[in-house]
Structure formats: C-alpha cells, structure tokens
Amino acid sequence: MALKNFNPVTASLRGTILIDRSELWKGKPVKALTVGKASTGGRNNHGHITSRFRGGGHKQSYRVIDFRRRRFDVPATVERLEYDPNRTAFIALIKYQDGELAYILAPQRLRVGDAVVASRRADIKPGNAMALASIPVGTIIHNVEMKPGAGGKIARAAGQYAQLVGKDAGYAQIKLMSGELRVVRGECLATIGAVSNPDNSNQHIGKAGRSRWLGRMPHNRGVSMNPVDHPLGGGEGRTSGGGHPMTPWGKPTKGYKTRGNKRTDRMIIRHRNKGKG
Fold first, then answer.
1. pTM to 2 decimal places
2. Under a CB-based contact definition with an 8 Å cutoff, are residues 117 and 104 in contact?
3. Which one of 51, 126, 201, 263 is least enclosed by Cβ atoms within 10 Å?
C-alpha cells in the first residue's frame, strides 16, 4: 500500500503522512471471529500502572487470528483484506472449501481471490504455510513457530520477515531482521512471504490527538520531574540530564541487557547485539 500525503491546510497536516488504506475492506469484521477487548490503561489486576503512558484511545474489538494454520491440506480463498486496530499488519479473511472463515496475517503481494493452503508440501507462494523442513533454503518467511503446534511467534509485525538460511540435524537456521541467527525445530510451521504494510514505519502521526486515538498518552521526560519522582529530576533551572539514562526506579536503559532466559540461549547462534554475548 502507498503512503498518503495531505495539503497543509492546517498546521498538523503539514507533515502528516499516513498509510493509504483505500484498497482494504471498509465494512465491519466478521462478528463470529471477534471477541470483546477491555482497555487496561497499562494497569495490572491490582490496578497498579505497570506500563506507563497508556490510556484512552478508541474502543477496539479483537480479531481472532489463526496463527497455527490449523486446517491442514484444505485449500482456502482470500475473501478480502482488512485493517486490524490491534496490530500494525493487515489481515486477510480466508474461506475454506467447506465454507469456514478464518483470519490470517496478510503477507505482501497477497490479493483478493488468491488461493492459500497449509500443507506438508505446497507451492512457494505468499500465504502458503508448511514446515520449515519442507521450505527451500533462502526463502523469505514470516509467522514462524518456536515450538511445533504452538502457533507463529516470530516475524508478525508490519513489514517483518525472516530468512531460512540453513537446515541441519532436524533443525532449521533462520536469520531475523534484527541480525539474530537462531535455530528452531524443522517441524515448526512458517508462512511464505513478508508481512504486509511495510510502509508502517514511514508514517508521521502529525498531531498529538492521533496518538491519543491510539491509546498513547504524553510521555514525560525524567529531567522535567522533581527528584522525588525520578533519578534525573531536579536541578536549579533547566538541565539536559547529566546522568546516565535510567528508569524512575534506577534501572539503566539504552544498552542494559534484560534477557534472562538462559534455557533457550543454546538456540541462538548469533545474538542481535554482536559482540555483546
């Protein structure tokens, strides 16, 4: 999809750049494939804010996406492409031969009327899903499972993809966009192609109100706070920091390692931060 520019008839439109969604379905989603979604405002079950600067925003209904591609060897046809407010990628409504409907992540170059299938052996076409052991080396993939049958977890956001770079001893080596090289079981499913909406990162929101529609509240700088509220707060007059960047609770940011899952370290051949372990 292309980007949409605006004539600067107002100050906020001068730099606004949005995604042109004119080719997407303009109606409501399939009601049977949606569930209610409550806004948490960044709060946990105790009512404490655990994710700051979230709240408000337009009410959303969650679209149930088939990340597992559970209907094996049953061809389906793409009925339409839709916008999903819960993710940056577009979604595709597919209809199986027996009439069942399902939502999947829409890859790039997938069009209405295209046929898709999840099978042990399938054509290397966008939208088809199969095990990594059956996919040729060098293929661009997305929605990659980390455990067989658990559903796709890797490369699901707009424009994301991974590349299958090798196979050995029942495992497949995949290279992620971050530069990380890791192995997953060859039985894990993956979908051919890159995720749709690659221009998502080129958007320019243009005004504060559009961020509020998305549920994003204003982000307050630590240096603008008082010492009681933030380690970088206080000072006579305006300051530009002076200390190492950190959270309000003193944990370093910008380069501080937060990965603690040592159990799966053996699955990572090369970390995304090369030279940092």
1. 0.91
2. no
3. 263
